[in-house]
Recover the amino acids of this structure.
């Protein structure tokens, strides 16, 4: 079992920044990657960013095209925490952001944190 606790959401004006954090606990060794999905009202959930984790992982990152150059995902393997630094936020970034852990055979999702960007 893996538990994920997110923090850092909130409201900001366009052009501002927010930093999301996600602390993982439990069966940490079973996690292949950590990352973030988001879901805006009326839209499908989309993968925003991810990073490979674990002692022998290469830290490879992925970003959806719409956030490249604005968002940065990073990890702290000692604290089993992943961060999403979001800069130059746009109104279209407004969504509920879900931390996820890739366990290989399934995904574990956090409870979600709201990010609201006003134009």
């Amino acid at each position: 079992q893996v538990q994920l606790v997110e923090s850092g959401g909130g409201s900001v004006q366009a052009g501002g920044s927010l930093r999301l954090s996600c602390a993982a606990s439990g069966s940490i060794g079973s996690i292949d990657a950590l990352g973030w999905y988001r879901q805006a009202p009326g839209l499908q959930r989309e993968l925003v960013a991810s990073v490979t984790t674990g002692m022998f992982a290469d830290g490879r990152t992925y970003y959806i095209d719409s956030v490249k150059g604005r968002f940065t995902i990073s990890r702290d393997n000692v604290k089993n925490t992943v961060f999403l630094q979001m800069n130059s936020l746009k109104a279209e970034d407004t969504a509920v952001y879900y931390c996820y852990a890739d366990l290989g055979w399934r995904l574990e999702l956090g409870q979600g944190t709201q990010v609201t960007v006003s134009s």
